Amino acid sequence: MQARADVIAGVGLKDKPRKSRWPARMDLAQSVTGLLLGLFMWGHMFFVSSILLGKDAMWTVTKMFEGYFLFGRPYPVLVSFVVAAVIALFVLHALLALRKFPANYRQYRAFSAHRRLIRHGDTTLWWVQFMTGFALFFLASPHLFQMLVHPGLIGPFESADRVWSGGWWPLYLVLLFAVELHGGIGLYRLAVKWGWLQGADADASRRRLAVAKWTLTAFFLVLGLATLAAYMKIGYEHRDRAGERYVPARVQPAPVGGGGQ
User: Fold this and answer.
1) What is the pTM (predicted TM-score) of this model?
2) CA-CA distance, 169 to 183, in Å (whole number)?
3) Do the beta carbons of residue 59 and residue 156 sit within 8 Å?
4) 197 Cβ contact partners less than 8 Å away, ≥ 6 residues apart
5) pLDDT digit of tens for each residue in the chain (261 aa)?
6) C-beta separation of 248 from 55 below 8 A
7) Residue 197 DSSP label
């Protein structure tokens, strides 16, 4: 009888459906794509803020990504390859994140009531991340498409003309706040979720991470606003010559004929 019971129990365990590992895999993929996009966001901000060091500095950074100093001439298509990779990460991350969005108005109301009831800081941060992520669907897509199809129109004058004469500055202003809030909160939540930089006291570690998160967010917002203001100023001063490419004096061809003594 005992042997029969063991056989029946074994059959029952064998026939019991196993839990799928796909939710965990998708959660990990969402974390990885979010981390890569967050790090790219910070790197991108440093690259575009090179305009604060002068037009020549920004031109140098731009040409470096176009392979100018490696091949002896610029290849803007290299920028398109980078942008295409970022778009792929952006789309994949968005699709994975959609799993956790409220699926209908009833779920939205239930979450809102829950958030107001418990008044938990990290829950509110998730809500801000959700709202900014939704906004990024519409704000980041035009910018990424512009960079993908017109990679050669990046430079001190070219970018400034797009910002001012092209009228892109309102979109960039809103995009700046959306992407910095979304990315900063996302990286903070990743650190909490996976236990990065966590000490013996979990609560104290979370507080330190929160301070670091808001410090970095404030830093990148100030840097972004200063950068956008610099492009707007250059674009305004260059508005009568919009479309002209910037060429540093050191790489301009020498005048024909030279100068006599």
Assistant:
1) 0.83
2) 20
3) yes
4) 191, 205, 208, 209
5) 555 555 445 555 555 556 778 888 888 899 999 999 999 999 999 999 999 999 999 999 999 999 999 999 999 999 999 999 999 999 999 999 888 777 677 876 776 776 666 666 677 888 889 899 989 989 999 999 999 999 999 999 999 999 999 999 999 999 999 999 999 999 998 888 877 767 677 778 888 888 999 999 999 999 999 999 999 999 999 999 999 999 898 877 655 555 443
6) yes
7) T
